[in-house]
Design brief:
The complex is a heterodimer of chains A (259) and B (424).
Chain A (H helix, E strand, L loop, with lengths): L5 H7 L5 E4 L1 H6 L1 H17 L3 E2 L10 H6 L2 H17 L4 E4 L2 H10 L8 E4 H10 L15 E4 L13 H9 L3 E3 L29 H11 L4 E4 L2 H13 L7 E4 H6 L4
Parallel strand pairs in A: 1-2, 1-3, 3-4, 5-6, 5-7, 7-8
Helix pairs in contact in A: 7-8, 9-10
Chain B lengths: L1 H30 L11 H13 L8 H30 L6 H4 L1 H29 L14 H26 L20 H25 L7 H10 L13 H11 L25 H9 L5 H5 L1 H4 L6 H22 L9 H5 L2 H5 L6 H5 L6 H14 L6 H13 L17
The chains are: A alpha/beta (259), B mainly alpha (424).
């Protein structure tokens, strides 16, 4: 893919419409990279000019802050804000709800003021504006799909409807889990849990959630977060359903349905 | 005889109210053990929270059955208190049913209405007792609710049953009263002489008002304090998106001085500070208001993914521990005049590392709380103390910290490869 960086735009003396904040998972995790590419392909297709920070992007500091390491968080935030302010960034889209939450809600207090959208919201807007054209009778039409609300898009930021509107536009049969929207159950990765073993308990949170998702009989579990995707994939494997049930990001579903 | 009763009533009233006021000022002191924090912006939005969360009980209706039962007790409690005004007037002036002459036929209508409410309160309270003691709903049988908290919950229910029964029996025994519900209880007294029924009426009258005073004074020692605290707590509850973690300006400043040494003052005489919270005195007063507003309903714990999967963490226990600790520190302060370290702290002695480590910061507990309590905010403050004061982190987290610091990502991968995905 030919993805331009902010540095390349700056060298030309121009600037893109939006910065695509890829995030650590989206950059390094092989599964999440597929989501990153799917989303980038959507942006390319609709002709929205975007750039990435590339090597200049750093962890937002989310897992550091939430585990209690405020020093490390502040260091990361300082560097990222310096970089973005130097490029005079106005608008950011990100495929990670944790990055989304930090950029949108926590950087303003530190001098980083940007308009931040999560990719599911941007996709929904682009569909509404007619800029994303979906195939008639796309590959997911009538497919039983359940949607997993990530904590940091849902409860943390009250975004519940945009991802569902995208699924509706894909003509899928959306089935809700018992715990959804404000009552959605965490996948188990938040609060830096992704980076450590579970505390002793009777089961793992991702097993509990995956079991609930599988009970809907859906063949696809739609997600909006790289960590949820990992957790649910592990959970589905635990129940030996990986051949029957896929975990797909909203961006992947849309990218596969473009006209 | 009437005069004796009047004087007695006046003395009892003054004593009960003074005792209550003293305890409330004590709780105020306990809450302000917490650090100062100014929460006074967006007043209109705050009043809206009071209206919807506290008065309107919006979040209670996430669970319709307990919401309706609770609404019986809540509406009954508020409206029956109008009748207490009459009781106070009667007690002070030695009258009986002082408002009756002024209201005429309306009096019977009003009292019948109150009786309906009283009956609904009884229905609600008995249903609550059954849910807690016979059905043993899961959120009422958690380890942190064993012992005193269960007794507290039941005691409140018993007091309410007694109060409502007194009210109905008093009306039934009154030969001149003919109210909607109590009139069906009149046969109980059919064989009694007029003087005996009058005596019984006086006894139930005294029983009712003494019960109310007892309830008033038990309240501040109980989880039931939420009937008062829900209102200020809703007012001061968070208006920002729930995902936002409170900033630490002192660390922001430190990092700025480190990155831009020119901005740092040449000398600093600031006292060394500690980060996060080890004890209740390190928390904000709002955290402690939260703790005193908690009615231990367990909606938070029921929604907590860690608790659901058998981990030790229970957000309700976080709130109960915080209140217990604040009360303990306050009691010690009362005894010795100022805070003397007792070798204990909220972190470790009340709330364990294992509990704190299990939190996914998913905000389910915050979302679930009907009165806007934020257990997560306390958990975050304790986690900060663990990491930044004690360097107490699991090995995996230390590796993650190291990776973020050195590779700008939580994994041990080269920052040069951050955009490698564009090439594949």
């Amino acid at each position: 893919m030919n993805i331009k960086s902010m540095a390349a735009f700056a060298a030309e003396g121009s600037s893109p419409e939006i910065l695509f904040w890829v995030g650590c998972a989206g950059s390094f995790d092989q599964r999440a990279q597929r989501v990153t590419k799917a989303f980038a392909s959507i942006l390319e297709k609709v002709g929205l000019s975007f750039a990435i920070l590339g090597k200049e992007e750093m962890c937002t500091g989310d897992p550091a802050r939430r585990s209690g390491n405020e020093f490390l968080f502040q260091m990361m935030a300082y560097n990222n804000i310096q970089t973005m302010n130097a490029y005079n960034i106005k608008r950011i889209v990100t495929t990670c709800p944790h990055c989304f939450n930090v950029l949108k809600n926590e950087y303003p207090a530190l001098g980083g003021n940007y308009e931040v959208v999560h990719h599911t919201t941007l996709i929904q807007e682009l569909i509404n504006d007619g800029r994303i054209q979906l195939k008639e009778g796309g590959s997911f039409k009538g497919k039983r799909i359940t949607y997993h609300d990530s904590c940091y898009l849902g409860r943390a930021n009250n975004v519940y409807e945009a991802p569902r509107a995208v699924l509706e536009a894909l003509d899928v049969e959306l089935v809700e889990m018992k715990r959804c929207r404000t009552n959605g159950l965490c996948c188990g990765a938040g609060g830096a849990q992704m980076f450590k073993e579970d505390e002793p308990g009777t089961t793992r949170i991702n097993f509990e959630r995956s079991e609930e998702a599988l009970a809907t009989g859906a063949s696809i579990i739609a997600s909006n977060c790289p960590f949820c995707t990992t957790m649910l994939s592990d959970g589905v494997k635990k129940f030996e359903q990986e051949d029957n049930v896929q975990i797909m990001d909203i961006a992947e579903l849309v990218a596969a349905s473009l006209k | 005889m009437v005069l004796v009763q009047q004087v007695l009533f006046l003395l009892v009233s003054i004593f009960a109210i003074a005792l209550f006021a003293r305890k409330i000022s004590n709780i105020r002191k306990a809450i302000f053990l917490g650090k100062k924090e100014s929460i006074n912006d967006r007043k209109a939005d705050r009043w809206k929270q009071v209206l919807f969360l506290a008065l309107g009980q919006k979040k209670m209706f996430k669970k319709p059955i307990p919401a309706i039962l609770h609404a019986f007790v809540y509406v009954g409690f508020i409206l029956i208190n109008i009748e207490v005004v009459e009781i106070l007037v009667d007690g002070l002036f030695g009258t009986e049913r002082a408002f009756k002459p002024y209201l005429g036929g309306l009096y019977t209508v009003a009292l019948s209405f109150f009786e309906i409410l009283a009956a609904l309160v009884l229905v609600g309270v008995i249903a609550f007792w059954i849910r807690r003691n016979i059905l043993k709903l899961k959120r009422f049988t958690s380890p942190e609710l064993q012992g005193a908290p269960l007794q507290d919950a039941n005691l409140i229910l018993y007091i309410e049953i007694v109060l409502m029964s007194m009210l109905l029996l008093m009306n039934a025994a009154d030969p001149e009263a003919n109210f909607l519900i109590s009139k069906h209880l009149k046969p109980l007294f059919s064989n009694w002489s007029e003087s005996t029924t009058h005596l019984f009426m006086r006894i139930t009258w005294w029983g009712h008002i003494l019960g109310i005073f007892a309830f008033l004074n038990y309240l501040p020692y109980s989880k039931h304090l939420h009937i008062i605290m829900a209102f200020p707590n809703a007012y001061y509850s968070r208006l920002d998106p729930q995902g936002t973690v409170a900033n630490m300006p002192e660390i922001q400043q430190e990092v700025l001085y480190m990155m831009e040494p020119a901005t740092a003052p040449a000398t600093t005489d600031a006292a060394p500070m500690s980060f996060g919270a080890k004890d209740v005195t390190d928390l904000s007063w709002k955290h402690l208001l939260d703790a005193f507003s908690c009615t231990e309903c367990g909606r938070c714990t029921e929604q907590c993914p860690a608790n659901i999967t058998g981990k030790k963490l229970s957000p309700r226990k976080i709130m109960m521990d915080t209140r217990d600790r604040a009360e303990a520190v306050c009691a010690q302060m009362d005894k010795q005049g100022n805070i003397v370290p007792d070798g204990k702290s909220l972190l470790h002695d009340y709330i364990s590392v294992e509990e704190l480590r299990a939190c996914t910061t998913c905000n389910a507990c915050v979302e679930a709380c009907p009165v806007g309590i934020e257990p997560l905010s306390i958990i975050m403050q304790l986690r900060r103390n663990l990491i930044m004061e004690e360097s107490n982190a699991p090995q995996e987290w230390n590796m993650m910290f190291g990776n973020i610091e050195n590779n700008m990502a939580p994994w041990k991968l080269s920052p040069d490869d951050r955009d490698a995905w564009t090439q594949s």
